[in-house]
Amino acid sequence: MKFIKRIQFVFHFRKSLPFIKDFFTSSAVHPLKKVMTAGLIVAYAVMPADILPDYLFLIGITDDIAFTAFMLQLAVKMAPPELAEKHQLHIK
């Protein structure tokens, strides 16, 4: 069930873009949270190996989608509640 919620979250990615901008520019978000989130994203992007190789097309991008969903959910959970509410992003 949690995986399905993550997939639904990714389908609303466009709605998440303004939140991501506000998350990284807001003074209400602790700088350590910003660094941790950005660091995880960069580390995953430069990692030479995927769990599932991307050349397997739809199957191969599954781990990328799961990671993206996980990072978005993590950012929403770390953000101040008013920031998540402003963008109508709620994780339960």
TrEMBL record:
Residues 36-67 form the DUF1232 domain. Pfam families: DUF1232 (PF06803). It is found in: Endomembrane system. It comes from the Bacteria. It is a multi-pass membrane protein. InterPro entries: DUF1232 (IPR010652). Keywords: Membrane, Transmembrane, Transmembrane helix. Its main location: membrane. This is YkvA family protein. It comes from Jeotgalibacillus terrae.
